[in-house]
# Entry
Amino acid sequence: MTDILPRERALQESGQINTLQQERWDLWREEESENTEPFNIHELLRTEVKLRETAQREVALKEKLAIYQKQPTTDGSSAPTEIIQGLRAEVTMLNEKYWMLERKWWSIKGSLIEGPLARGMRLWRSHPKWYMHCVLREDCAGRGGCCGRDCGCCFNRHLPKRKFAAGHCTVECHCCEKARGFELSSEQKARVEKMFDLSVDRGYFKRIRHASLLGLIHLNLDNPFDLIEDPPPRYEAQAV
# Structure
């Protein structure tokens, strides 16, 4: 891990964080154009979504499992053994899936050569609530997530054994399922995921990329750390 450049240090010490992060991005893009093995930002962000998705599915299943185990059926017998066994089996499978996804994330992140982007990410994500950036919160609310309600799930989401659980809602969020009143089918989940696909190099991806990696908003000059909403307001999904 290399030390920051003298100009970077001067910008950071003078509080010019926006300029610092933007210059790091511009410099990285220039260097990356000559890289024979480019860093896959698309896959890094997609893997982070899959990690949150897996962790949220685990939480949902454990809550459902607890209900089945406590709540008797109408005839007074316990919940069907096969249902409980099925839920337990999926929880075990998800634990293995999370472990593999975590290794995948580290493999992708490890391909990022130490340089301006790595330093920018390290600075931005050193804040424990970096993911409460206003762009990421607005995106969560627009997708029907908890940032559009008063539950506070995203702000308070923390699982000691799931480093990547902190963050915003996915199609597997149990609180979102209860709020909308129905469970998404596999086909519906696939359609929603396609709408917000981070593998496509378009405006949506670029907004999420800049906010997630560096805390930046295009043409915005605010200090990225001032864009972290703590405590957060409630976002309303707006029609234009």
User: Anything to note?
Assistant: The radius of gyration is 20 Å.
